[in-house]
Design brief:
Length: 357
């Protein structure tokens, strides 16, 4: 069992993982990037959260949709909760959004069925947020209750011929899709979260609060797995034993017959998934399975090592298909507009254009 392995050994594994993560490959290689900077101002990075359902108009939870800048989700929720005289458990949100951005997001507050909406709006009026909508619903918004996020991003000070270069990259990505890497912000400054996450596996006492750091390890291993697949030339190739997801219904199954499933993959009807290791993860089989198993053996992590942290694992789509990407020249640079499913990082798309060092 890995619990008997000393902390130094896991620290070495963390350093190995960090070395393997840099640099990550690009789907648009060898096309040149456009350069430029992201988030020169908060207004250059706008994200609008899209919920999977609309408020029904009745219930004890009040949904407040608001626009903010310079605030993270937790701090905005906390100050609104205190103004409304509620407990932290009365507040819900679907996901955390960037602080250095203009964000449109919806939070839920359990105010009760008799609390007038006009009073809620009046109570929040003196806060530095723009209230866009207030309505009622029966349920609290919980983590993951986000269907998609709509991004409007300005890349400032791009290089010469930025628009034609960006159009060429966009055309390539529409054919290849974007590798669905986790963004660098998940790993913390200097990738310190990876070091913290690996060290947890050597601890004798384990706490539920460590779940996020364990998920960082899972994310790092996914990125390494996808990088290796790309380096092997199998990014746009379906393998025997791949666990695939139907793009229309979300149903998942294991590929047994490549002759049948490969044309469906090429047509965009299915996409292969990568491992989020855990004690309940559905593993790939055959050739695809050996790649996943080799990675877990390299880091000496078994499914049972994730059980104390209640991390069952899952599968993550390896390729992101951009369906509504638009480009336009603006005064400050080049504007990109696109919609991404929940859990996908905008920086993963933007890096294909800017090629940061």
């Amino acid at each position: 069992m890995t619990s008997n392995v000393n902390t130094e050994d896991f620290a070495n594994r963390a350093e190995a993982a960090i070395a393997m993560l840099s640099p990550l490959p690009y789907a648009a290689d060898p096309l040149p990037g456009i350069g430029g900077a992201i988030k020169a101002t908060p207004g250059h990075f706008v994200v609008e959260e899209i919920l999977p359902y609309a408020a029904c108009g009745e219930g004890e939870h009040v949904y407040v949709t608001f626009r903010r800048a310079g605030w993270n989700t937790a701090d905005a929720a906390r100050i609104m909760q205190k103004h409304l005289g509620l407990a932290p458990s009365d507040v819900g949100w679907g996901g955390r959004k960037d602080k250095m951005a203009v964000v449109v997001q919806t939070l839920s507050f359990r105010c009760g069925v008799n609390h007038p909406l006009a009073d809620v709006e009046k109570t929040l009026a003196d806060l530095p947020f723009e209230i866009l909508a207030i309505d009622r619903h029966r349920n609290k918004i919980k983590t993951g209750h986000v269907a998609a996020n709509r991004f409007t991003v300005v890349v400032s000070d791009p290089g010469p011929d930025a628009l034609p270069r960006a159009i060429t990259i966009a055309d390539r990505l529409k054919r290849t899709g974007v590798p669905n890497f986790y963004g660098p912000q998940r790993f913390g400054y200097g990738l310190q979260n990876i070091r913290r996450g690996f060290t947890l596996f050597s601890a004798k006492k384990r706490a539920r609060k460590d779940t996020f750091m364990v998920s960082v390890v899972q994310s790092a291993l996914f990125n390494i797995w996808l990088k290796r697949r790309m380096q092997a030339g199998d990014y746009r190739t379906l393998l025997a034993g791949d666990v695939v997801k139907k793009t229309d219904t979300g149903g998942m199954f294991t590929v047994d017959d490549l002759a049948i499933e490969a044309p469906r993959f090429n047509a965009g009807e299915i996409v292969y998934t990568g491992p989020i290791y855990g004690f309940k993860m559905k593993p790939a089989m055959h050739a695809a399975g050996e790649i996943e198993a080799a990675l877990s053996r390299q880091f000496a992590l078994t499914p049972e090592d994730f059980r104390p942290y209640r991390s069952p694992g899952s599968r993550r789509e390896a390729i992101l298909n951009l369906t509504d990407l638009t480009l336009a020249e603006v005064e400050d640079g080049l504007r990109l507009t696109f919609t991404l499913p929940s859990g996908v990082y905008a920086t993963t798309v933007l890096r294909e254009f800017t090629r940061p060092s």
